[in-house]
Amino acid sequence: MKAYILEKYGKKQVLSLSTLPEPSLKPAEVLVEVHGTAINLLDSLIRNGEFKLFLPYKVPFVLGHDFAGTIIKVGSDVKRFKIGDKVYARPSDFKIGTFAEQIAVNEKDLALVPSNITTEEAAGIPLVGLTSWQALVEIANVQPGQKVFIQAGSGGVGTFAIQLAKHLGAYVATTTSSVNIDLVRSLGADEVIDYKKYDFSAILKDFDVVLHSNKDVKVLEKSLAILKPGGTLISLTGPPTLIIMHQFNLAFYFKLILNLLSASVRVKAKKLNVNYHFLFMKADGAALAEITKLIEAGKIKPVVDRVFGFEQLNEAMAYVETGRSKGKVILKIK
């Protein structure tokens, strides 16, 4: 099969198109012919080596965290899926590799593709959908009438999270540039702030939940300050907390490192009487099946910016890194 591999870490590295053997199957896995995958900023961050502390992938390896495709083989213990099923997933960490024509995936990570969207649209759902679900449903437990601030509303996570928050009954505020105001309003945003003109922290206050995705420390501090007492900030960019130690079964000495990395933000959160959480989303086929129901019910619609051909992978990654994409960027493989 054809696959793109990362041969060494580095910001200027390009992925090489190579020929690899067909993936071998474990009893609880299925082999999927990949029709489409999505390009995520996470792929660039891993390529750059920014997550080597707790995701020490050994080069060379295949990148990619989203896919939609068709099952072509099933392992002996697989119960819920069969050959011919159209499925999608965000594979588990250390089992990634969707920049390829085929991938072996544990059935617990899989869900059936929503019947009312295209394969390309489905390929862009798992990572942003599960990130939004784990943040807003599992951690924040957003309730009707609560106020939720979602940063970068026109991005991949933002376009999905706005729709999910509205479905949960929240009042939603977001930031974007002026050219994307109509887009985020069409997704359900109640209050839109042009971040190039206005400081959100001077406008927003008494929010219940913030979904934070900006790496600027000052933006993190301002985001904590707009929460009401008892409110919750969920960060996708860090600093990481001890939850990472348990999620990735890290050695005990990482506790000191993680405590040092998150000490400042935890102190600030405590002074403000608010909660700080770091989220590194995880694969979850059951949650993805719940997301499928929402898509099929018309509650959430995929937002796709551009579709690139398989041979354009490095071009697609460079485009995502500009930060100008609206929704998801898809790589069409088959």
Notes on the protein architecture:
With 334 residues, the protein is an alpha/beta fold. It has 2 domains: 2-125 and 302-332, Quinone Oxidoreductase, Chain A, domain 1 (Alpha-Beta Complex); 127-278, NAD(P)-binding Rossmann-like Domain (Rossmann fold, 3-Layer(aba) Sandwich), CATH 3.40.50. It is 30% helix and 26% strand. The protein has 10 helices and 16 strands. The strands form 3 sheets. Strands 3, 5, 6, 7, 8, 15 and 16 form a 7-stranded mixed β-sheet that branches. Strands 11-10-9-12-13-14 form a 6-stranded parallel β-sheet, sandwiched between helices. The two termini are 12 Å apart. The relative contact order is 0.16.
Brief account:
The protein is of the alpha/beta class. The protein has helices spanning 41-48, 119-123, 126-139, 156-167, 181-186, 217-225, 243-247, 254-272, 285-296, 313-321; strands at residues 2-6, 16-19, 29-39, 61-62, 67-74, 86-89, 102-106, 110-112, 147-150, 171-176, 191-194, 207-212, 227-235, 275-278, 304-309, 328-332.
Element order, helices and strands? EEEHEEEEEHHEHEHEEHEHHEHEHE
CATH topology of the largest domain: Quinone Oxidoreductase, Chain A, domain 1
Based on Cα principal axes, name the global outline.
globular
Say which CATH homologous superfamily of the largest domain is assigned. Medium-chain alcohol dehydrogenases, catalytic domain
Low-confidence stretches: none
How many distinct domains? 2
Structural class, from secondary structure content? alpha/beta
Mean pLDDT across all residues, rounded?
A: 96
The tally of helices reads 10
Number of E strands: 16
Instruction: Using the coordinates above, name the CATH class of the largest domain.
Output: Alpha Beta
Biggest sheet features: 7 strands, mixed
What is the helical fraction, as a range of percent? Answer: 25-40%
Radius of gyration: 19 Å
Query: In angstroms, what separates the terminal alpha carbons?
Result: 12 Å
What is the CATH-assigned architecture of the largest domain?
Answer: Alpha-Beta Complex
Proportion of strand residues: 25-35%
